[in-house]
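Suppose you are handed a protein chain with no further information: no name, no annotation, nothing but its sequence. What can you learn? This example shows the usual starting point.
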Amino acid sequence: MTFRVEHLNPSAMPSSAVFSQAVAVSGPARTIFVGGQNAVDVNGIVGHDLATQTTKALHNVELVLAEAGAQLADVVSWSIHVVDGQPLVDGFRAFQALWGDRGEPPAISVAVVAGLANPQFLVEISAVAVVPM
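A reasonable first move is to predict its three-dimensional structure. Written in C-alpha cells, the prediction is:
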C-alpha cells in the first residue's frame, strides 16, 4: 500500500506559488519532525543577513532529513520564525531558490518574533516531512 500527499488550496482562498493552505497525508508513512534549525555549522553561526541565514538553516533541515532517509521534497509543513525588523522578502527569496521546482509547496507558517535563542540568530526553521514506510 502506498501513501498519498494531497495539497489543499480551496478555490475560495488565495493561491500562492510559495505555500499550500494545507497538506493531507494518508496511508502508511513515516513522519519526521525536524526541530528548529538555525544558521549554524560546526564552527558557529553562518551569515549576518536573513538571506544567508535562511539558506544555511534550510540546508541544515536538509541534512537532518537526509539522516532520517528523507529529502526536502518530502516536507509537508514548515514553521519559520524570523526576528522582527528583518526583510522578509529576502528570506522568501532564499527559500524559493532552494525549493526550486520540487512541485507543489508545503503548508507554511511564518511568525515574526522579538528574538531567538541566540541574539545573532535571525531565523529558525522547523519542518514536518512524510516518507513511505
